[in-house]
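Encode chain A's predicted structure.
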Amino acid sequence: MSSPSRSSVAGVVRLSFDRQGRRWYEHIVIPDFQRPYCWTMDDIQKILDDVDDLRFLQETSYRNDEYYFGSICLRRQENSLNLQLLDGQQRLTSFMILAQLLFERSKKSKNKEIREWGDYLDWILGGKEKWKKIFIYEQPDTIVHIKNIYSQFQKHYELLEVESYSSVENEEQQSEKTSIYELTLKRDLARICYIFRHGRFAVTFLGSSIREAEQFFQGENNRGLPMSMLDILKAYHMRFEDDDGKLKEIQRIWSEFNIQEDLPVQNEKEHSVIEQKANQYWLVTQYVIPALLLSSGTWPWDKDNVKNVDKLKGIMGTHRHDRVVDEKLSKLDNSKIGIFDLLDPINPGLNFFLMLDQYRKIATSVKQFLINQPITLKFDDAEFILVLALIAWVDRFLKTGLIEKDSSVITKALEEDLDFISYAQTFALFFNWLKYNSDEDPGAFSQVRKVRLLGLLNYKQRGESLLLLPHRTSSPAACKRELIRMTTPEVMSRKIWNANHLDGYRKAYNLIKKV
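Encoded structure for chain A:
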Protein backbone atom coordinates (compact mmCIF):
# COMPACT_ATOMS: atom_id res chain seq x y z
CA MET A 1 0.00 0.00 0.00
CA SER A 2 1.39 3.42 -0.96
CA SER A 3 1.53 6.39 1.40
CA PRO A 4 -1.40 8.80 0.92
CA SER A 5 -0.82 11.64 -1.59
CA ARG A 6 -2.93 14.76 -2.05
CA SER A 7 -4.99 15.38 -5.16
CA SER A 8 -7.66 17.82 -6.18
CA VAL A 9 -11.12 16.34 -6.74
CA ALA A 10 -10.73 17.21 -10.43
CA GLY A 11 -7.35 15.44 -10.47
CA VAL A 12 -9.10 12.25 -9.39
CA VAL A 13 -11.78 12.61 -12.08
CA ARG A 14 -9.17 13.37 -14.75
CA LEU A 15 -7.23 10.30 -13.54
CA SER A 16 -4.06 12.41 -13.40
CA PHE A 17 -4.11 12.85 -9.61
CA ASP A 18 -2.48 16.26 -10.26
CA ARG A 19 0.64 14.62 -11.72
CA GLN A 20 2.34 15.66 -14.93
CA GLY A 21 2.71 13.28 -17.85
CA ARG A 22 0.66 10.60 -19.54
CA ARG A 23 -2.62 9.39 -18.05
CA TRP A 24 -2.21 5.66 -17.46
CA TYR A 25 -5.79 4.80 -16.49
CA GLU A 26 -9.08 4.77 -18.39
CA HIS A 27 -11.88 4.39 -15.84
CA ILE A 28 -12.68 4.32 -12.15
CA VAL A 29 -14.75 1.23 -11.33
CA ILE A 30 -16.89 0.98 -8.21
CA PRO A 31 -16.83 -2.80 -7.52
CA ASP A 32 -19.91 -4.80 -6.65
CA PHE A 33 -18.51 -5.89 -3.26
CA GLN A 34 -18.95 -2.30 -2.07
CA ARG A 35 -22.14 -1.24 -0.37
CA PRO A 36 -24.45 0.65 -2.77
CA TYR A 37 -24.43 4.41 -3.14
CA CYS A 38 -26.90 5.63 -0.53
CA TRP A 39 -26.54 9.37 0.08
CA THR A 40 -29.74 11.41 0.09
CA MET A 41 -30.33 14.97 -1.13
CA ASP A 42 -30.02 16.10 2.50
CA ASP A 43 -26.63 14.39 2.86
CA ILE A 44 -25.36 16.12 -0.27
CA GLN A 45 -26.80 19.48 0.75
CA LYS A 46 -25.07 19.30 4.13
CA ILE A 47 -21.63 18.99 2.55
CA LEU A 48 -22.48 21.82 0.13
CA ASP A 49 -23.61 23.99 3.05
CA ASP A 50 -20.34 23.27 4.86
CA VAL A 51 -18.39 24.45 1.81
CA ASP A 52 -20.47 27.65 1.69
CA ASP A 53 -20.09 28.27 5.41
CA LEU A 54 -16.30 27.96 5.31
CA ARG A 55 -15.24 29.21 1.87
CA PHE A 56 -17.99 31.41 0.34
CA LEU A 57 -17.21 35.13 -0.09
CA GLN A 58 -19.94 36.80 -2.16
CA GLU A 59 -22.13 36.13 -5.21
CA THR A 60 -20.06 33.53 -7.13
CA SER A 61 -16.75 34.07 -5.31
CA TYR A 62 -15.02 31.52 -3.10
CA ARG A 63 -11.74 31.68 -1.21
CA ASN A 64 -8.83 30.22 -3.17
CA ASP A 65 -7.54 28.05 -0.34
CA GLU A 66 -7.99 24.27 -0.26
CA TYR A 67 -10.92 22.39 1.28
CA TYR A 68 -10.28 18.88 2.59
CA PHE A 69 -12.89 16.21 1.81
CA GLY A 70 -11.18 13.33 3.59
CA SER A 71 -9.49 10.28 2.08
CA ILE A 72 -10.19 7.91 -0.80
CA CYS A 73 -8.59 4.57 -1.62
CA LEU A 74 -8.05 2.95 -5.04
CA ARG A 75 -6.34 -0.10 -6.48
CA ARG A 76 -5.23 -1.11 -9.96
CA GLN A 77 -7.77 -3.53 -11.45
CA GLU A 78 -6.10 -6.72 -12.64
CA ASN A 79 -5.57 -7.13 -16.39
CA SER A 80 -6.94 -3.70 -17.27
CA LEU A 81 -6.17 0.01 -17.27
CA ASN A 82 -8.94 0.68 -14.77
CA LEU A 83 -8.81 1.67 -11.12
CA GLN A 84 -11.18 0.33 -8.48
CA LEU A 85 -12.53 2.85 -5.98
CA LEU A 86 -12.59 1.21 -2.54
CA ASP A 87 -13.35 4.18 -0.32
CA GLY A 88 -14.89 7.55 -1.20
CA GLN A 89 -17.81 6.44 -3.37
CA GLN A 90 -20.47 8.53 -1.59
CA ARG A 91 -18.63 11.85 -1.93
CA LEU A 92 -17.27 11.38 -5.45
CA THR A 93 -20.56 10.06 -6.84
CA SER A 94 -22.48 12.96 -5.28
CA PHE A 95 -20.10 15.49 -6.86
CA MET A 96 -20.40 13.80 -10.24
CA ILE A 97 -24.22 13.82 -10.09
CA LEU A 98 -24.15 17.57 -9.46
CA ALA A 99 -21.53 18.18 -12.15
CA GLN A 100 -23.55 16.32 -14.78
CA LEU A 101 -26.81 18.04 -13.87
CA LEU A 102 -25.39 21.57 -13.62
CA PHE A 103 -23.38 21.17 -16.83
CA GLU A 104 -26.46 20.01 -18.78
CA ARG A 105 -28.51 22.91 -17.44
CA SER A 106 -25.78 25.42 -18.26
CA LYS A 107 -25.74 24.29 -21.90
CA LYS A 108 -29.49 24.94 -22.20
CA SER A 109 -29.35 28.37 -20.58
CA LYS A 110 -29.85 31.58 -22.57
CA ASN A 111 -27.61 33.36 -20.09
CA LYS A 112 -24.09 33.75 -21.54
CA GLU A 113 -22.38 33.87 -18.14
CA ILE A 114 -24.04 30.61 -17.10
CA ARG A 115 -22.92 28.91 -20.32
CA GLU A 116 -19.38 30.14 -19.65
CA TRP A 117 -19.50 28.63 -16.16
CA GLY A 118 -20.52 25.33 -17.77
CA ASP A 119 -17.57 25.52 -20.17
CA TYR A 120 -15.28 26.27 -17.24
CA LEU A 121 -16.57 23.20 -15.37
CA ASP A 122 -15.95 21.03 -18.44
CA TRP A 123 -12.40 22.43 -18.73
CA ILE A 124 -11.64 21.75 -15.05
CA LEU A 125 -12.70 18.12 -15.51
CA GLY A 126 -10.56 17.57 -18.60
CA GLY A 127 -12.69 18.94 -21.44
CA LYS A 128 -14.77 17.49 -24.28
CA GLU A 129 -17.19 15.97 -21.72
CA LYS A 130 -15.00 12.86 -21.43
CA TRP A 131 -15.42 12.98 -17.63
CA LYS A 132 -19.03 11.80 -18.01
CA LYS A 133 -17.77 8.29 -18.85
CA ILE A 134 -14.99 7.98 -16.27
CA PHE A 135 -17.00 6.15 -13.56
CA ILE A 136 -18.30 2.61 -14.03
CA TYR A 137 -20.74 1.21 -11.43
CA GLU A 138 -21.11 -2.54 -11.00
CA GLN A 139 -23.82 -2.40 -8.32
CA PRO A 140 -27.34 -2.35 -9.87
CA ASP A 141 -28.82 -0.73 -6.75
CA THR A 142 -26.26 2.07 -7.03
CA ILE A 143 -27.22 2.82 -10.63
CA VAL A 144 -30.90 3.02 -9.68
CA HIS A 145 -30.19 5.33 -6.73
CA ILE A 146 -27.96 7.63 -8.79
CA LYS A 147 -30.80 8.09 -11.29
CA ASN A 148 -33.19 8.75 -8.42
CA ILE A 149 -30.98 11.44 -6.83
CA TYR A 150 -30.35 13.02 -10.24
CA SER A 151 -34.13 13.19 -10.82
CA GLN A 152 -34.73 14.76 -7.41
CA PHE A 153 -32.20 17.53 -8.07
CA GLN A 154 -33.57 17.95 -11.59
CA LYS A 155 -37.07 18.45 -10.22
CA HIS A 156 -35.74 20.99 -7.71
CA TYR A 157 -34.27 23.12 -10.51
CA GLU A 158 -37.32 22.68 -12.74
CA LEU A 159 -39.62 23.98 -10.01
CA LEU A 160 -37.30 26.89 -9.31
CA GLU A 161 -37.20 27.72 -13.01
CA VAL A 162 -40.99 27.62 -13.39
CA GLU A 163 -41.54 29.73 -10.25
CA SER A 164 -38.94 32.30 -11.36
CA TYR A 165 -40.34 32.82 -14.84
CA SER A 166 -43.99 32.69 -13.78
CA SER A 167 -43.39 35.79 -11.65
CA VAL A 168 -42.14 37.72 -14.72
CA GLU A 169 -44.89 39.21 -16.86
CA ASN A 170 -43.44 38.96 -20.38
CA GLU A 171 -40.53 37.64 -22.44
CA GLU A 172 -38.92 41.08 -22.66
CA GLN A 173 -38.70 41.28 -18.88
CA GLN A 174 -37.35 37.73 -18.78
CA SER A 175 -34.48 38.65 -21.08
CA GLU A 176 -33.64 41.88 -19.21
CA LYS A 177 -33.76 40.62 -15.64
CA THR A 178 -31.66 37.83 -14.12
CA SER A 179 -34.10 35.42 -12.48
CA ILE A 180 -33.76 33.70 -9.10
CA TYR A 181 -33.28 30.47 -11.02
CA GLU A 182 -30.36 31.90 -13.01
CA LEU A 183 -28.76 33.40 -9.91
CA THR A 184 -29.08 30.05 -8.13
CA LEU A 185 -27.71 28.10 -11.11
CA LYS A 186 -24.77 30.48 -11.45
CA ARG A 187 -23.97 30.23 -7.71
CA ASP A 188 -24.24 26.42 -7.77
CA LEU A 189 -21.96 26.19 -10.82
CA ALA A 190 -19.39 28.39 -9.06
CA ARG A 191 -19.54 26.16 -6.01
CA ILE A 192 -19.13 22.87 -7.89
CA CYS A 193 -16.20 24.40 -9.82
CA TYR A 194 -14.62 25.38 -6.50
CA ILE A 195 -15.15 21.84 -5.15
CA PHE A 196 -13.45 20.20 -8.13
CA ARG A 197 -10.61 22.69 -8.39
CA HIS A 198 -9.82 23.45 -4.74
CA GLY A 199 -11.29 20.43 -2.96
CA ARG A 200 -8.64 17.94 -1.87
CA PHE A 201 -8.55 14.19 -1.17
CA ALA A 202 -5.83 12.18 0.50
CA VAL A 203 -5.41 9.38 -2.07
CA THR A 204 -4.13 5.93 -1.12
CA PHE A 205 -3.26 3.24 -3.70
CA LEU A 206 -3.34 -0.47 -2.82
CA GLY A 207 -1.71 -3.29 -4.74
CA SER A 208 -3.56 -5.15 -7.47
CA SER A 209 -4.66 -8.10 -5.33
CA ILE A 210 -8.44 -8.51 -5.21
CA ARG A 211 -8.14 -10.14 -1.80
CA GLU A 212 -6.22 -7.14 -0.48
CA ALA A 213 -8.91 -4.82 -1.81
CA GLU A 214 -11.75 -6.81 -0.29
CA GLN A 215 -9.93 -7.05 3.05
CA PHE A 216 -9.33 -3.29 3.05
CA PHE A 217 -12.96 -2.52 2.30
CA GLN A 218 -14.22 -4.97 4.92
CA GLY A 219 -11.77 -3.54 7.43
CA GLU A 220 -12.97 -0.01 6.77
CA ASN A 221 -16.55 -1.09 7.40
CA ASN A 222 -15.59 -2.89 10.60
CA ARG A 223 -13.54 0.01 11.92
CA GLY A 224 -15.64 3.06 11.25
CA LEU A 225 -18.66 2.97 8.98
CA PRO A 226 -20.72 4.89 9.66
CA MET A 227 -18.43 7.54 11.14
CA SER A 228 -18.71 8.14 14.87
CA MET A 229 -19.90 11.46 16.21
CA LEU A 230 -16.34 12.29 17.29
CA ASP A 231 -14.94 11.49 13.84
CA ILE A 232 -17.51 13.76 12.18
CA LEU A 233 -16.74 16.58 14.61
CA LYS A 234 -13.00 16.19 14.03
CA ALA A 235 -13.40 16.36 10.25
CA TYR A 236 -15.71 19.37 10.55
CA HIS A 237 -13.60 21.46 12.93
CA MET A 238 -10.28 20.70 11.20
CA ARG A 239 -11.61 22.44 8.10
CA PHE A 240 -11.42 25.77 9.91
CA GLU A 241 -7.65 25.57 10.30
CA ASP A 242 -4.94 25.76 7.66
CA ASP A 243 -2.06 26.89 9.88
CA ASP A 244 0.49 24.08 10.33
CA GLY A 245 1.07 24.95 13.98
CA LYS A 246 -2.62 24.76 14.83
CA LEU A 247 -3.05 21.52 12.89
CA LYS A 248 -0.15 19.96 14.80
CA GLU A 249 -1.76 21.04 18.09
CA ILE A 250 -5.05 19.43 17.00
CA GLN A 251 -3.22 16.19 16.20
CA ARG A 252 -1.48 16.29 19.59
CA ILE A 253 -4.78 16.69 21.43
CA TRP A 254 -6.45 14.00 19.30
CA SER A 255 -3.61 11.55 19.97
CA GLU A 256 -4.25 11.81 23.73
CA PHE A 257 -7.34 9.64 23.39
CA ASN A 258 -7.28 8.14 19.90
CA ILE A 259 -5.76 4.76 19.07
CA GLN A 260 -4.19 3.91 15.71
CA GLU A 261 -5.69 0.46 15.41
CA ASP A 262 -3.45 -0.96 12.70
CA LEU A 263 -0.20 -0.50 14.65
CA PRO A 264 1.10 -3.76 16.18
CA VAL A 265 1.66 -3.85 19.94
CA GLN A 266 5.35 -4.50 20.53
CA ASN A 267 5.55 -4.80 24.31
CA GLU A 268 3.71 -4.48 27.61
CA LYS A 269 4.46 -0.77 27.86
CA GLU A 270 2.80 -0.08 24.49
CA HIS A 271 -0.16 -2.23 25.54
CA SER A 272 -0.51 -0.08 28.67
CA VAL A 273 -0.45 3.12 26.60
CA ILE A 274 -3.18 1.75 24.32
CA GLU A 275 -5.33 0.85 27.33
CA GLN A 276 -4.92 4.35 28.73
CA LYS A 277 -5.92 5.94 25.42
CA ALA A 278 -8.90 3.60 25.11
CA ASN A 279 -10.02 4.69 28.57
CA GLN A 280 -9.61 8.36 27.63
CA TYR A 281 -11.62 7.83 24.43
CA TRP A 282 -14.38 6.20 26.49
CA LEU A 283 -14.39 9.16 28.90
CA VAL A 284 -14.69 11.64 26.02
CA THR A 285 -17.60 9.80 24.40
CA GLN A 286 -19.28 8.77 27.69
CA TYR A 287 -19.03 12.04 29.63
CA VAL A 288 -17.45 14.94 27.74
CA ILE A 289 -19.85 14.95 24.77
CA PRO A 290 -22.95 14.75 27.06
CA ALA A 291 -21.47 17.52 29.25
CA LEU A 292 -21.01 19.79 26.22
CA LEU A 293 -24.65 19.07 25.26
CA LEU A 294 -26.04 19.88 28.73
CA SER A 295 -26.88 23.49 27.92
CA SER A 296 -29.05 22.38 24.96
CA GLY A 297 -31.12 20.01 27.12
CA THR A 298 -30.07 17.02 24.99
CA TRP A 299 -30.90 13.53 26.26
CA PRO A 300 -27.56 12.49 27.88
CA TRP A 301 -27.76 8.90 26.60
CA ASP A 302 -27.93 10.27 23.04
CA LYS A 303 -24.19 10.94 23.14
CA ASP A 304 -23.54 8.73 20.07
CA ASN A 305 -26.41 10.10 17.98
CA VAL A 306 -24.90 11.90 14.99
CA LYS A 307 -28.05 14.03 14.77
CA ASN A 308 -26.54 16.04 17.64
CA VAL A 309 -23.45 16.98 15.63
CA ASP A 310 -24.95 20.32 14.60
CA LYS A 311 -25.21 21.34 18.28
CA LEU A 312 -21.43 21.06 18.60
CA LYS A 313 -20.40 22.76 15.37
CA GLY A 314 -20.10 26.07 17.14
CA ILE A 315 -21.08 29.65 16.44
CA MET A 316 -20.94 30.72 12.81
CA GLY A 317 -22.16 33.52 10.65
CA THR A 318 -23.90 33.28 7.30
CA HIS A 319 -21.90 32.29 4.23
CA ARG A 320 -22.68 35.63 2.58
CA HIS A 321 -21.32 37.56 5.58
CA ASP A 322 -23.99 40.24 5.18
CA ARG A 323 -26.18 39.79 8.28
CA VAL A 324 -26.02 41.32 11.74
CA VAL A 325 -24.79 38.01 13.21
CA ASP A 326 -21.70 38.34 11.00
CA GLU A 327 -21.09 41.82 12.36
CA LYS A 328 -21.36 40.52 15.92
CA LEU A 329 -19.00 37.62 15.27
CA SER A 330 -16.45 39.87 13.58
CA LYS A 331 -16.02 41.65 16.93
CA LEU A 332 -15.05 38.40 18.66
CA ASP A 333 -11.40 37.38 18.79
CA ASN A 334 -11.74 33.74 17.78
CA SER A 335 -7.98 33.28 17.82
CA LYS A 336 -7.86 33.98 21.55
CA ILE A 337 -7.18 30.81 23.52
CA GLY A 338 -8.60 30.69 27.02
CA ILE A 339 -10.43 28.69 29.67
CA PHE A 340 -13.75 27.34 28.48
CA ASP A 341 -17.17 27.26 30.16
CA LEU A 342 -20.01 24.79 29.55
CA LEU A 343 -22.42 27.65 28.86
CA ASP A 344 -20.12 29.39 26.38
CA PRO A 345 -20.86 29.02 22.66
CA ILE A 346 -18.39 26.69 20.96
CA ASN A 347 -15.77 28.34 18.77
CA PRO A 348 -15.01 26.23 15.66
CA GLY A 349 -11.55 24.96 14.83
CA LEU A 350 -8.67 24.54 17.28
CA ASN A 351 -10.75 25.97 20.14
CA PHE A 352 -13.15 23.04 19.90
CA PHE A 353 -10.28 20.56 20.38
CA LEU A 354 -8.87 22.59 23.27
CA MET A 355 -12.33 22.53 24.85
CA LEU A 356 -12.50 18.75 24.39
CA ASP A 357 -9.12 18.45 26.06
CA GLN A 358 -10.12 20.62 29.02
CA TYR A 359 -13.25 18.61 29.75
CA ARG A 360 -11.43 15.32 29.12
CA LYS A 361 -9.11 16.21 32.00
CA ILE A 362 -12.04 17.26 34.18
CA ALA A 363 -13.97 14.03 33.45
CA THR A 364 -10.82 11.99 34.17
CA SER A 365 -10.38 13.79 37.50
CA VAL A 366 -14.02 13.35 38.57
CA LYS A 367 -14.01 9.64 37.70
CA GLN A 368 -10.72 9.11 39.54
CA PHE A 369 -12.13 10.94 42.57
CA LEU A 370 -15.11 8.55 42.65
CA ILE A 371 -12.73 5.58 42.41
CA ASN A 372 -10.53 6.87 45.23
CA GLN A 373 -13.46 7.94 47.40
CA PRO A 374 -16.39 5.64 46.49
CA ILE A 375 -19.91 6.97 47.00
CA THR A 376 -22.76 4.48 47.47
CA LEU A 377 -25.50 4.81 44.85
CA LYS A 378 -28.64 2.71 44.76
CA PHE A 379 -29.45 2.52 41.01
CA ASP A 380 -27.49 2.01 37.80
CA ASP A 381 -27.85 5.36 36.02
CA ALA A 382 -27.06 7.43 39.11
CA GLU A 383 -23.27 7.48 38.66
CA PHE A 384 -23.46 8.58 35.02
CA ILE A 385 -25.63 11.58 35.91
CA LEU A 386 -23.62 12.29 39.08
CA VAL A 387 -20.43 12.55 37.00
CA LEU A 388 -22.11 15.10 34.71
CA ALA A 389 -23.26 17.10 37.74
CA LEU A 390 -19.74 17.07 39.19
CA ILE A 391 -18.17 18.07 35.86
CA ALA A 392 -20.47 21.12 35.94
CA TRP A 393 -19.36 21.90 39.53
CA VAL A 394 -15.65 21.64 38.60
CA ASP A 395 -16.32 23.76 35.51
CA ARG A 396 -17.49 26.57 37.81
CA PHE A 397 -15.80 26.21 41.19
CA LEU A 398 -12.43 24.47 40.72
CA LYS A 399 -9.82 26.57 42.48
CA THR A 400 -7.92 29.03 40.29
CA GLY A 401 -4.71 28.00 38.57
CA LEU A 402 -5.69 24.34 38.26
CA ILE A 403 -7.87 24.05 35.14
CA GLU A 404 -4.86 23.80 32.80
CA LYS A 405 -2.97 21.36 35.01
CA ASP A 406 -2.71 17.60 34.51
CA SER A 407 -5.73 15.52 35.58
CA SER A 408 -3.79 13.97 38.46
CA VAL A 409 -3.24 17.45 39.93
CA ILE A 410 -6.95 18.27 39.56
CA THR A 411 -7.93 14.95 41.19
CA LYS A 412 -5.72 15.69 44.21
CA ALA A 413 -7.24 19.16 44.52
CA LEU A 414 -10.79 17.73 44.44
CA GLU A 415 -9.93 15.19 47.13
CA GLU A 416 -8.85 18.08 49.35
CA ASP A 417 -11.78 20.37 48.52
CA LEU A 418 -14.43 19.97 51.22
CA ASP A 419 -16.96 21.99 49.19
CA PHE A 420 -16.66 19.55 46.28
CA ILE A 421 -16.85 16.47 48.52
CA SER A 422 -19.90 17.83 50.30
CA TYR A 423 -21.64 18.67 47.00
CA ALA A 424 -20.94 15.19 45.61
CA GLN A 425 -22.32 13.51 48.75
CA THR A 426 -25.41 15.74 48.82
CA PHE A 427 -26.20 14.97 45.18
CA ALA A 428 -25.69 11.24 45.86
CA LEU A 429 -28.10 11.40 48.82
CA PHE A 430 -30.75 12.95 46.58
CA PHE A 431 -30.35 10.10 44.09
CA ASN A 432 -30.59 7.51 46.87
CA TRP A 433 -33.83 9.06 48.20
CA LEU A 434 -35.37 8.27 44.83
CA LYS A 435 -34.79 4.49 45.00
CA TYR A 436 -36.94 2.22 47.16
CA ASN A 437 -35.31 -1.07 48.17
CA SER A 438 -37.29 -2.06 51.28
CA ASP A 439 -39.15 -0.53 54.22
CA GLU A 440 -35.81 -0.38 56.03
CA ASP A 441 -34.20 1.24 52.96
CA PRO A 442 -37.02 3.53 51.74
CA GLY A 443 -37.24 5.70 48.65
CA ALA A 444 -39.72 7.13 46.16
CA PHE A 445 -39.68 4.57 43.32
CA SER A 446 -39.03 0.86 43.01
CA GLN A 447 -37.55 1.63 39.57
CA VAL A 448 -35.89 4.95 38.72
CA ARG A 449 -36.37 5.22 34.97
CA LYS A 450 -34.24 7.55 32.84
CA VAL A 451 -37.17 9.75 31.80
CA ARG A 452 -38.35 10.13 35.39
CA LEU A 453 -34.85 10.90 36.66
CA LEU A 454 -34.19 13.62 34.10
CA GLY A 455 -37.64 15.09 34.66
CA LEU A 456 -36.87 15.49 38.38
CA LEU A 457 -33.58 17.16 37.42
CA ASN A 458 -35.31 19.63 35.02
CA TYR A 459 -32.57 18.77 32.54
CA LYS A 460 -34.37 20.31 29.54
CA GLN A 461 -34.68 23.74 31.15
CA ARG A 462 -31.22 25.33 31.12
CA GLY A 463 -32.31 27.96 33.67
CA GLU A 464 -33.72 25.36 36.09
CA SER A 465 -31.58 22.25 35.53
CA LEU A 466 -30.09 20.83 38.72
CA LEU A 467 -27.15 19.61 36.64
CA LEU A 468 -26.26 23.22 35.79
CA LEU A 469 -26.94 24.55 39.30
CA PRO A 470 -23.29 25.69 39.74
CA HIS A 471 -23.66 28.00 36.74
CA ARG A 472 -26.41 30.07 38.33
CA THR A 473 -25.07 30.32 41.88
CA SER A 474 -22.35 32.63 43.13
CA SER A 475 -20.27 30.32 45.33
CA PRO A 476 -19.82 26.65 46.31
CA ALA A 477 -21.70 27.31 49.57
CA ALA A 478 -24.62 28.97 47.76
CA CYS A 479 -24.65 26.12 45.25
CA LYS A 480 -24.96 23.49 47.98
CA ARG A 481 -27.65 25.48 49.82
CA GLU A 482 -29.70 25.69 46.63
CA LEU A 483 -29.27 21.96 45.97
CA ILE A 484 -30.50 21.18 49.49
CA ARG A 485 -33.50 23.49 49.03
CA MET A 486 -34.38 22.08 45.59
CA THR A 487 -34.35 18.48 46.87
CA THR A 488 -36.57 18.93 49.94
CA PRO A 489 -39.83 16.92 49.94
CA GLU A 490 -41.77 20.21 49.76
CA VAL A 491 -40.11 21.25 46.49
CA MET A 492 -40.08 17.70 45.09
CA SER A 493 -43.83 17.42 45.73
CA ARG A 494 -44.30 19.60 42.61
CA LYS A 495 -42.78 16.81 40.53
CA ILE A 496 -43.59 13.65 42.51
CA TRP A 497 -47.37 13.68 42.29
CA ASN A 498 -48.16 10.17 43.48
CA ALA A 499 -48.81 10.28 47.26
CA ASN A 500 -47.16 6.89 47.92
CA HIS A 501 -44.05 7.87 45.96
CA LEU A 502 -43.82 11.18 47.77
CA ASP A 503 -44.26 9.47 51.13
CA GLY A 504 -41.38 7.08 50.29
CA TYR A 505 -39.19 10.04 49.30
CA ARG A 506 -40.04 11.83 52.56
CA LYS A 507 -39.19 8.76 54.64
CA ALA A 508 -35.80 8.40 52.94
CA TYR A 509 -35.17 12.13 53.35
CA ASN A 510 -35.95 12.08 57.05
CA LEU A 511 -33.98 8.89 57.64
CA ILE A 512 -30.63 10.30 56.53
CA LYS A 513 -29.13 13.46 57.94
CA LYS A 514 -27.76 15.73 55.25
CA VAL A 515 -24.06 16.34 55.08
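Confidence is low (pLDDT under 50) at residues 213-225, 261-265.
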